[in-house]
Amino acid sequence: MIKGMLICSLFFLTFSIFAIIYRLVKGPSAPDRIQALDALGINIISGVAIFSVLLGNTGFFEFILLIGILSFIGTIAFARYIERGVVIERKHSE
Amino acid sequence: MRKPNDVIIRGVTKVVVVIIFTFAINLFISGHHYPGGGFIGGLAFSSGIILLFLTFDMESVRKNIPVDFKVLAAIGVLIAVLTGVGGMLLDAPFLSQSFGYFELPIFGKTELATAVLFDVGVALAVIGTSLMIIMSIGDDR
């Protein structure tokens, strides 16, 4: 019963990831693609969580937190690049 | 020209960096029995410092963390080699390790292994190398 539910939710997550990939390929501007990448990271987190419940294994929980941190830092870096044109500033200009 | 105001990202970073450093140390400590270890612990720690670099500018982070990362990588490799040589001094092969159970005051019976010292060396080398790469790329002089 629970296995069928988990596999069903994995199927819907795959569908959602395909929709995000459509936005990633088609997206007219750069912020669309960056938001698609952020949502892709979140979908991968939930996919790994469901997969670890399916396997009955707690070894993937660090991976979940790590993907969250890396997705956050990547989104911040891309947003800095779009807004300022430079990712790491040498000296704060004000 | 409009002055950029990033108070939200600064406020979030000051909270999140603490969580990232704690998680990195947890990954480093739990590497013996659970997933983790020196490599991924060092990478998570350096990703926290990279978040500081992204939010604040490079000069203030350098001023507040006065560590030369080239020296840090060299110290890491030196520690990793010296743990191997320390086995040779006690008539054991190179890189042989040992462990023992000790009664610590707070933790009680704890297993301490010399592999942790090797892991410290790996983590310091990873932190130093990755941050040296990031700083030499980001410095656009």
UniProtKB/TrEMBL annotation, chain A:
This is Na(+)/H(+) antiporter subunit F. Keywords: Antiport, Cell membrane, Ion transport, Membrane, Transmembrane, Transmembrane helix, Transport. One of its GO terms (cellular component) is plasma membrane. It is a multi-pass membrane protein. PANTHER family: NA(+)/H(+) ANTIPORTER SUBUNIT F1 (PTHR34702), NA(+)_H(+) ANTIPORTER SUBUNIT F (PTHR34702:SF1). Pfam families: MrpF_PhaF (PF04066). It is found in: Cell membrane. Its main location: membrane. Signal peptide: none annotated. One of its GO terms (molecular function) is sodium:proton antiporter activity. NCBIfam families: PRK12600.1 (NF009248). Belongs to the CPA3 antiporters (TC 2.A.63) subunit F family.
TrEMBL record, chain B:
It is found in: Cell membrane. InterPro entries: CPA3_antiporter_subunitB (IPR050622), MnhB (IPR007182). The keyword Membrane applies. The chain crosses the membrane at residues 12-31, 37-57, 69-92, 112-135. Keywords: Cell membrane, Membrane, Transmembrane, Transmembrane helix. It is a multi-pass membrane protein. GO terms for cellular component: plasma membrane. Residues 8-131 form the Na+/H+ antiporter MnhB subunit-related protein domain. It comes from the Bacteria. It holds the Pfam family MnhB. Belongs to the CPA3 antiporters (TC 2.A.63) subunit B family. NCBIfam families: PRK12573.1. This is Multisubunit sodium/proton antiporter, MrpB subunit. It comes from Schinkia azotoformans MEV2011.
